[in-house]
Design goal:
- By secondary structure, the chain is of the alpha/beta class.
- The chain contains 24 helices and 14 strands.
- The strands form 3 sheets. Strands 7, 8, 9, 10, 11, 12, 13 and 14 form an 8-stranded mixed β-sheet that branches. It has a 4-stranded antiparallel β-sheet with strand order 4-5-3-6.
């Protein structure tokens, strides 16, 4: 379909938006191993859909300079996340680099452009998109409570719902000026939808302001049986009910609440200095000081620093693009410590892409050795190769496009160390992956554990006698971690546990000798790793 006319706001209605994003969702490619096949999914899904199915000439789109640009962009990003299969954190990480295409998305969705985003707008978009996605369940509870009619809420068109969520989030969580929030979001609803939509936004936001001023916002009561309590807590802390019940079952109520509070907080980010290019942590610290980005040195890893703000400044300065550093949590870096790569070794990385651990392992080889990086997703492997070149370690990494189980069955290559960073629920990284909580279902756990078992069996075939198999996840759930190792060892008596005490600090070591990082205990992403030796 090709449209070459200027679209009036009234044309941008519910049917067009649903068509746009239903097409997007159908076209997003998912890696059968990795549910978070992020960069490829966004590129080959939403972006391609826009150009193929809504080939609208943006130079014919009219400029509406009266509309708040950060709210317009936030609304469209939220549409892309919820209906188009994009990832909230990836869109936010792209920052100003996505500015060229950002207004194309806005124009195609809303029917008009706004002025360009400045740095303040970008920060607000990041806050609003991430926060609105995290607090979606609670925000919807408030909207429904003020609607007093479930049918009205359930039948609400997607763009109107996103505008309301933005307004509610700005008032309740960001505590912005109520007058400005009401005025700007009403203008957006009228311009992008119709006058009646603006009237609804005005009425609901004004009700919310009055309730907040009276400190009488609706809130579920936590009482009744276990199931009812979990439902109330899930609404208050904005998580799926099944996650809340699961965490209460093995963490206890108090720890489960602490975990949800952590997941809803502003995330920390860690940066790893790329020593393979002679860029040390002191060099990274100097760059951050020049950019006026506050940082703390990692307490656990020599090459890492932690930041809470300023990631956009790091990206815009080109530090990532030049391969001088990478975004990598300490918890992932400690998994590489468990692998313990040495110069001259041959290592197999079984589910390598997007390659954070692969690159860190390569930097530890001091120019000697080989990492065979296997992944089923060709596009993600291509990105890994490009990043490896930027990091100066492409001569150490051989990418292999293959299904791991097929590769293990047909290839006789063995390695002294094999890393299986397995596809998992991602329940340890919910503070950074704001949208992930809504994309996981309890039924996924059974499918994931079955896949993890199959991949462990395949990876075990690639380990030399006396070599090590390292199994890791970014999950905190025992079902994906300790239980998988227990069942694996029952099937493979030729393997035994190698205690990780030689590789990570004592506070990360479990009673069984595994590595485990816990968001509440360590203020890091949740992760797990076991080191198994092939003894027989």
């Amino acid at each position: 379909m090709s449209v070459h006319c200027v679209l009036s706001p009234g044309v941008v209605g519910q049917s067009r938006i649903r068509l746009f994003y239903s097409i997007s969702a159908r076209n997003v490619e998912e890696n059968s191993y990795r549910s978070n096949s992020r960069a490829d999914s966004v590129k080959t899904g939403s972006a391609r859909v826009l150009s193929d199915h809504l080939n609208i000439r943006t130079n014919t789109m009219k400029l509406n300079a009266e509309i708040s640009p950060h709210r317009a962009v936030s609304a469209v990003r939220l549409m892309r996340v919820e209906l188009g299969g994009a990832f909230a954190d990836l869109l936010n990480e792209q920052g100003s680099e996505s500015g060229v295409n950002e207004m194309q998305y806005v124009a195609r969705t809303l029917g008009f452009c706004t002025r360009k985003l400045d740095d303040r707008d970008l920060r607000l978009v990041t806050d609003i998109v991430g926060g609105t996605v995290r607090w979606r369940r609670y925000l919807d509870y408030l909207i429904l409570s003020l609607c007093h009619d479930e049918n009205t809420f359930r039948s609400m068109e997607p763009l109107l719902l996103q505008i309301l969520r933005i307004g509610f989030y700005e008032i309740v969580k960001l505590e912005m000026s109520p007058h400005a929030v009401v005025y700007e979001n009403v203008k957006l609803a009228k311009a992008a939808l119709r006058l009646g939509a603006g009237s609804m936004v005005n009425a609901l936001l004004r009700k919310l302001v009055l309730l907040k001023e009276k400190q009488s916002l609706p809130l579920p009561v936590v009482d009744g049986d276990e199931r009812k309590q979990a439902r109330s807590l899930a609404t208050i802390h904005s998580h799926p009910v099944w996650m809340v019940r699961r965490w209460i079952s093995y963490l206890g109520l108090e720890e489960a609440i602490k975990l949800m509070i952590w997941n809803n907080g502003d995330p920390f980010f860690s940066l790893r200095a790329n020593t393979a290019k002679g860029f040390m942590r002191s060099d990274l610290a100097r760059e951050l000081m020049m950019l006026k980005v506050p940082y703390d040195e990692s307490q656990h890893l020599d090459d890492f620093v932690r930041i809470r703000t300023g990631l956009q400044a790091v990206i815009q300065a080109g530090l990532l693009e030049k391969g001088l550093c990478s975004v990598q949590d300490d918890s992932a870096g400690l998994v590489v410590n468990v692998v313990d790569p040495k110069p001259g070794e041959k290592i197999i990385d079984c589910c390598a892409a997007p390659g954070g651990k692969t690159l860190f392992m390569a930097s530890r080889l001091n120019g000697q050795g080989t990492i065979h990086a296997i992944d089923i997703n060709k596009g993600r492997l291509r990105i890994l190769k490009e990043t490896a070149k930027a990091h100066g370690v492409d001569n150490l990494i051989a990418t292999v496009h293959s299904d791991l189980q097929t590769y293990a069955a047909r290839d006789g290559m063995l390695a002294c160390k094999v890393l299986l960073d397995a596809p998992c629920s991602g329940l340890g990284v919910l503070s950074k992956r704001a949208d992930l909580r809504w994309n996981r279902k309890w039924e996924d756990m059974a499918e994931l554990t079955k896949l993890q078992d199959s991949l462990l069996d395949a990876a075990s075939k690639l380990v030399k006698p006396g070599g090590a198999l390292i199994y890791s996840t970014c999950s905190i759930d025992p079902m994906e971690n300790e239980e998988r190792i227990s069942t694996f060892l029952s099937r493979h008596p030729e393997f035994c546990i190698d205690h990780v005490g030689k590789y990570v600090p004592p506070e990360f070591i479990t009673d069984e000798g595994f590595y485990s990082s816990n968001p509440i205990k360590h203020s890091l992403d949740g992760a797990f790793a076991s080191r198994l030796l092939r003894c027989g």
